Amino acid sequence: MNKQLIEKILCNAKTAKIGVVGDFCLDVYWFLNEIASEKSLETDLPTWPIAEQEYSLGGAGNVVNNLHALGCENIHVFGVVGTEPWGQKLMQKLYKLNVNCEGMITQEKHWATPAYVKPYKEQNELNRIDFGNFNKLDSYTLNSLLSSLEKELPELEIVIINQQIA
């Protein structure tokens, strides 16, 4: 691919109606500061005080973030989130990018929004804490997702599928 073709594709993508389908995840960063640590009354172990938290879109959400950064203005998303705070934060991040979220389906039971909590202690990443490893997509959610996608598909000029989770 030459430079002119890449520039043409990127220029056309800015106004194209783009669909992003896939595993929408949330990356969570916890920055520990042991200065405020104390012994837990319940366990007698030291606590891990969180001084700061940061959130970013992961999986298909990262694709959306990158498209937005490239100047794409007409992005439609299709995926599943849970009802817990991770799902709410993920949706806030998508809304902030001004994308069309009508294709995002909320499943109330047996689904936790995939979230990857990365604790940091003195600039070193500790063991990651994962949410969403035991998800079971129910038939109602699947049918709602497929129906939403079928409705929009004829209008989409570009469809990107991102599978983050096996």
Q: How would you characterize the overall build of this protein?
A:
The chain is of the alpha/beta class. The chain is 30% helix and 34% strand. It has a single domain, classed as Ribokinase (UDP-N-acetylmuramoyl-L-alanine:D-glutamate ligase), CATH 3.40.1190.
How would you summarize this macromolecular structure in one to three sentences?
The protein has 4 helices and 9 strands. By secondary structure, the protein is of the alpha/beta class.
CATH class: Alpha Beta
Say how many strands there are. Answer: 9
The major pleated sheet works out as: 5 strands, mixed
- Note poorly predicted spans: none
Mean pLDDT: 95
Structural class by secondary-structure content: alpha/beta
CATH fold title: UDP-N-acetylmuramoyl-L-alanine:D-glutamate ligase
Counting DSSP H or I runs of 4 or more residues, the number of helices is 4
Q: Looking at this structure, what is the CATH superfamily?
A: Ribokinase
Q: What is the global morphology?
A: globular
Cα distance spanning the termini: 31 Å
Shape-level CATH architecture: 3-Layer(aba) Sandwich
**Helix fraction by DSSP (H/I, runs of at least 4):** 25-40%
Rg to the nearest angstrom? 19 Å
Q: Please, how many domains?
A: 1
Query: What letter string, H or E per element, gives the SSE order?
Result: HEEEHEHEEEEHE
Strand content: 25-35%
